[in-house]
Design brief:
Order of helices and strands of chain B: EHEHEHEHEHEHEEHEEHEEHEHEHE
Number of strands of chain B: 15
Radius of gyration of chain A: 17 Å
Oligomer: heterodimer
Structural class of chain A: alpha+beta
Helix content of chain A: 10-25%
Number of domains of chain B: 2
Strand content of chain A: 15-25%
Helix content of chain B: 25-40%
Structural class of chain B: alpha/beta
Radius of gyration of chain B: 21 Å
Number of helices of chain B: 11
Largest sheet of chain B: 7 strands, mixed
CATH architecture of the domain at 29-93 in chain A: 2-Layer Sandwich
Strand order of the largest sheet of chain A: 1-4
């Protein structure tokens, strides 16, 4: 069942169950962040440590093997920048 | 035909869970409930009950595991008392909110401090607003029947709520009573298999217990409130079917000699039968007394209670609370009875008493005192704001 954005009480499933797997992609958490990770690809060794550690699965691998943050979901926690063995991720202030 | 045999009430309650062929027992021992889970552990160990017995490290985990099992499609049972229930509290609330029809046998015991292993109702009253269906048994037979029926009520697709059966610790749990015990063949077809409509299944993934942002939470709670209110239809239907098939009738509010009574004692649990004995004795002396018992605690039986207490005869209802709401009017049940009758012009006077805390026996003359307090209040035309503690040294 596709969940409505604002269901009425009788439209919720019992116990607020979600029976549409993976529908959290519709909820974009990217605007929570104040700092965003910026990857310096000249230093990146394509190890995927950022991808492994990211708690939001916000890193996506591109066709050249680099890992890029998806800013729609990245909450700006900075774990990737701390864990990166090549020190190629910097957290930069988001400007409106 | 059912055989009536002398059996310790705790063992009978365990047998009721076994009769329901529970899939998972997740429990931690605590006095005075221990014999129940001990007996279930024995049945599982002996191969007499095909269930998973999860030995957990705390009651918090006991309820967590029961909740998980229930949502994975297993019929789950647990049992506890007092501090155990208090430790469970977090998950007790979650179990009803996640609509997991766990059945819990609650051997009512007072809460510490001071440490007391004995009976009163402070444990269940502490959980009053957790969204469970809550039912009181007066004796071993009722505890056995109600535990068995609890699965049918909670698991009904229109209900999907956990059910707790209350019975007084020691006073019931540790006594041997003559109880009609069912054979499996006798109850054939009474309890249908359990199916949760959104069971945890890798073939059909669902999310249980998601975050409910402020846009969702209110609607989720309203839905839960409607669910427990609507459970009343199923509770009545199950009790009716049980009566038709096995000949024992259960009602949300039970009355005893209340039709022509002037003063009634409103009770819950094993004090009900003691009060009935007092009424029988005192009626020989011409005292028009009766007993009204609130068996179904949640969902609260507003209409049944109004009908029972506003029968044109009762002038005063003395409500016996077995727990205290500190800094409030003291009496939890008394407050609810008074609130239920508040808008009725012909309501009886409601007087609150408390007794039998922490396992103290309530003597015959103390029951008499409770009824007489009601008579005195009627005479003085004064409804006390606060509960009167009967049997207090002062």
């Amino acid at each position: 069942m596709k969940m409505k954005e604002k269901p009425k009480w009788y439209e919720l499933l019992p116990g607020a169950v979600i029976d549409e797997p993976g529908n959290s992609v519709f909820y974009k958490t990217g605007d929570w962040k104040t700092l965003k990770p910026v990857v310096d690809k000249t230093k990146c060794i394509k190890c995927g440590t950022c991808w492994i550690f990211c708690p939001e699965y916000a890193y996506e691998k591109d066709e050249y093997g680099y890992f890029n943050p998806n800013y729609d979901y990245c909450k700006g926690c900075g774990i990737c920048a701390v864990e990166c063995p090549a020190r190629c991720i910097k957290m930069e202030r988001e400007e409106d | 035909m059912a055989k009536r045999r002398g059996i310790e009430v705790s063992i009978a309650i365990a047998e009721a869970a076994a009769l329901a062929e529970v899939d998972v027992v997740s429990a931690y021992p605590i006095t005075p409930q221990t014999h129940i889970v001990e007996h279930l552990a024995e049945l599982v160990a002996n191969g007499e009950l095909n269930a998973e017995f999860i030995t957990v490290e705390s009651e918090h985990t006991a309820m967590s595991a029961a909740l998980g099992a229930s949502l994975a499609g297993a019929r789950a049972f647990t049992s506890t008392s007092s501090q155990g229930l208090a430790l469970m509290n977090e998950i007790v609330y979650i179990a009803s909110s996640m609509r997991a029809p766990v059945v819990m046998a609650l051997a009512n015991r007072s809460l510490s401090a001071p440490i007391s292993i004995w009976n009163d109702h402070s444990d269940v009253m502490n959980e009053r607003d957790t969204g469970w269906i809550s039912i009181f048994a007066n004796n071993g037979q009722e505890a056995y029947d109600l535990t068995f029926m609890a699965f049918k009520i909670g698991e009904h697709p229109d209900v999907l709520l956990p059910v707790m059966i209350n019975f007084d610790g020691f006073i019931l749990t540790h006594v041997v009573e003559p109880i009609y015990m069912f054979d499996k063949e006798e109850v054939e077809g009474f309890l249908p298999p359990y199916h949760h409509p959104y069971v945890l299944d890798p073939e059909r993934p669902v999310t249980h217990g998601p975050v409910g942002l402020p846009d969702i939470y209110t609607e989720a709670k309203k839905q839960q409130e409607e669910a427990i209110r609507n459970s009343r239809k199923v509770i009545d239907a199950v009790w009716k079917e049980f009566d038709e098939r096995f000949g024992r009738r259960y009602n949300a509010v039970e009355t005893y000699k209340a039709d022509d009574a002037e003063v009634v004692l409103v009770t819950q649990g094993s004090v009900t039968e003691a009060a009935q004995v007092v009424v029988d004795e005192m009626r020989k002396q011409g005292r028009k007394w009766g007993v009204v018992e609130i068996r179904l605690w949640r969902p609260f039986p507003f209409e049944d209670l109004k009908k029972a207490l506003c029968n044109g005869s009762i002038k005063c209802a003395v409500v016996l609370d077995r727990a205290i709401s500190f800094g409030g009017p003291l009496g939890i049940v008394m407050s609810e009875v008074r609130a239920a009758l508040y808008n009725l012009s012909d309501r009886p006077m409601v007087v609150g008493v408390t007794a039998g805390l922490g396992g103290r026996d309530i003597r015959f003359d103390e029951y008499v005192r409770m009824f007489e307090l009601g008579e005195e209040c009627l005479k003085e035309e004064k409804e006390p704001d606060r509960v009167i503690i009967v049997g207090l040294r002062e």
